[in-house]
Amino acid sequence: MNDGVGLDMEVVIVTMEAVLIEGLEPRQNRKRGDDFQALEFLQKEDPNLLRDRKAAVARELLESIQRA
What are 42-59's pLDDT values in tens digits? Predict the structure, then answer.
């Protein structure tokens, strides 16, 4: 259904629902209808990437100090 302002209300409703589900993370979304629990995977940053990023920043700072 188009409300005359160029927005399809069905699209708005579905989008808002998706945003709310993602933002609120309701417990019901982690369960299946047959009472099996879904797994939720949380990503953790690789410590080696963080170390390499810090080393790169340190090198850049050192180079900028040496140039000055």
Answer: 788 889 999 999 999 999
